[in-house]
Specification:
138 residues, mainly alpha, single chain, 6 helices, elongated
């Protein structure tokens, strides 16, 4: 089946925006660090530091771009194609974290990514039910 070039382009942008957004958020939050103690003033300092951190802000904006592109895709594209492809965001985020930030990706995390991707693929390939369930009127 031929895929629309516009859909492929927007889908690629969405996956890249998601991966870059998660990468920026991870980097930014690691730079901010954990609170010294779990008291309200220390937690508030971490929240303020995070919200004024350029990587955290950039990550949030990139994830907003991803969300907008994903909503646009849902409005016009073939869902049986878009939903499985969007699950590649998990793979891209894990790879970027490993390659750029040097994060260790455990086999359990890879197994989780594989399970989620397989589940999304299964749900995306499942057709719509022709018969709506009939529930008795209350």
């Amino acid at each position: 089946m031929q895929r629309d070039p516009k859909t492929l382009f927007v889908l690629s942008l969405a996956v890249l925006a998601n991966g870059a957004g998660n990468l920026c958020l991870s980097y930014g939050m690691k730079s901010v660090g954990p609170p010294g103690a779990w008291t309200l003033p220390d937690v508030w300092d971490v929240v303020c530091s995070a919200l004024s951190s350029a990587p955290v802000i950039a990550g949030g904006l990139l994830l907003l771009v991803f969300f907008a592109l994903f909503l646009a895709l849902l409005s016009w594209a073939d869902l049986s194609y878009v939903l499985p492809m969007i699950s590649s965001c998990f793979v891209v985020s894990a790879l970027l974290g490993h390659l750029v930030l040097g994060e260790r990706i455990s086999p359990v995390r890879w197994a989780g990514i594989a399970l989620v991707s397989a589940g999304v693929l299964l749900v995306g390939r499942t057709g719509h039910s022709r018969h709506a369930s009939k529930s008795p009127a209350a």
